[in-house]
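Query structure, 433 tokens:
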């Protein structure tokens, strides 16, 4: 039968009451005094009650103390303590529930450990550099790719992320400093790498955390370039066929018309069409030739005020801030070509004309030029591919504009990056040494 703490205490009270009555009767008869006998019986019953309560409560207290220690161990994350459940009362039921809860928590922790181990294995094997920082900007997690990228393969958990970035090339610091995700290039020695930074903020244990993911696009771009060259060969072949086929046909017709009297008007029309198709073909080929034969920049000292005034004569824009007094050193014709292309793109994006702004500011060891607009910006997919050769979202675009801009900037030893703006629009940043 299942016992009950309430029943045990009730039974003890009944037994003590019966013992008190019996002792009162015995002592009254022996001492021939009811008052003295009752007092002795009360004292004896009180001593018996204290002894019985102590015997009854001793295992109860031990179980309560064991439960208290077990709950304290739960708070410390230790679920290994179990309690012997040898009682058949309410306390025994509580002990058994405690043991079952501990067993469930041990299994959950083991499953969680296995999942964490699997997740850590996946993240450590990722080819992308992953860094997690806490609210104090301390690194609390990094994978192998991040350690190789920022710390020569060594762990840097516990370090301030700003200190880690201080040892990295400047483009990494610039990319992290901007609030938007985007692509940027890093030049090491004679080689350059392209990265795409993605970040995500979230709350963990009532603290804000920041997750940074640096995706190297260089290999992907190399694979894309192979596909792009195949595409450009198809485009050129298609364009050549579209022009050469009618030219050949019209030349044959012109030869026949030349033998027919009074066919001058028809012959002029055929020759005009041939001339128009030849001019179109020449313009098409010249566009690709300019990209393939980009000359080496001729660097010279340039006054920013005169340069910006000349640029404003070609395309309109608003000037943000003040121009540097220090003269820049670059090829003015090539940089003007870059800025004209970027400013026209900003106007063609649908941005209000007065929102297309050029900002020129001095930086340590260089100068930063920013072209900003309030158009729709770029989707993440377009942002990743915008600098690829021959990639264009325009129906009649050649896909060489932004690529040519990047080539010119990098030929100057600088870098070009694209970022979406908060509130809409695009920010194109050029850094020049």
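Result returned for the query:
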């Amino acid at each position: 039968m299942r016992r009950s703490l309430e029943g045990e205490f009730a039974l003890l009270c009944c037994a003590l009451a019966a013992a008190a009555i019996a002792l009162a009767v015995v002592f009254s008869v022996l001492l021939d005094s009811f008052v003295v006998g009752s007092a002795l019986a009360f004292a004896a019953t009180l001593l018996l009650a204290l002894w019985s309560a102590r015997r009854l409560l001793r295992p109860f207290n031990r179980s309560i103390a064991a439960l208290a220690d077990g709950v304290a161990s739960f708070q410390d994350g230790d679920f290994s303590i179990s309690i012997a459940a040898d009682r058949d009362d309410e306390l025994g039921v509580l002990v058994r529930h405690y043991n079952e809860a501990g067993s469930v928590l041990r299994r959950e922790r083991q499953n969680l450990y296995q999942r964490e181990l699997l997740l850590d294995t996946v993240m450590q094997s990722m080819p992308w550099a992953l860094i997690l920082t806490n609210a104090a900007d301390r690194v609390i997690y990094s994978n192998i790719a991040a350690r190789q990228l920022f710390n020569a393969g060594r762990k840097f958990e516990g370090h301030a992320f700003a200190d880690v970035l201080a040892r990295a090339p400047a483009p990494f610091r610039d990319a992290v400093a901007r609030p938007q995700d985007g692509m940027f290039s890093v030049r090491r020695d004679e080689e350059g790498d392209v990265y795409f930074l993605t970040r995500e903020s979230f709350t963990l244990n009532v603290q804000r955390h920041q997750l940074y993911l640096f995706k190297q696009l260089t290999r992907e771009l190399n694979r894309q370039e192979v596909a792009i060259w195949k595409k450009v060969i198809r485009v050129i072949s298609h364009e050549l066929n579209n022009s050469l086929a009618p030219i050949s046909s019209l030349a044959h017709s012109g030869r026949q018309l030349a033998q027919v009297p009074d066919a001058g008007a028809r012959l002029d029309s055929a020759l005009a069409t041939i001339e128009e198709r030849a001019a179109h073909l020449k313009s098409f080929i010249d566009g690709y030739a300019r990209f393939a034969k980009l000359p080496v920049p001729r660097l010279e000292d340039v006054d920013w005020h005169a340069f910006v005034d000349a640029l404003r004569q070609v395309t309109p824009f608003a000037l943000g801030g003040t121009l540097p007094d220090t003269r820049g050193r670059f090829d003015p014709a090539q940089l003007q070509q870059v800025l004209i292309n970027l400013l026209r793109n900003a106007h063609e994006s649908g941005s209000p004309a007065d929102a297309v702004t050029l900002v020129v500011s001095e930086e340590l060891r260089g100068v930063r030029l920013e072209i900003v607009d309030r158009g729709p910006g770029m989707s993440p997919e377009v942002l990743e591919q915008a600098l690829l050769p021959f990639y264009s979202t325009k129906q009649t675009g050649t896909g060489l504009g932004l690529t040519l801009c990047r080539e010119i900037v990098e030929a100057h030893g600088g870098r070009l990056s694209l970022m979406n703006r908060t509130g809409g629009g695009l920010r194109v940043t050029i850094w020049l040494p």
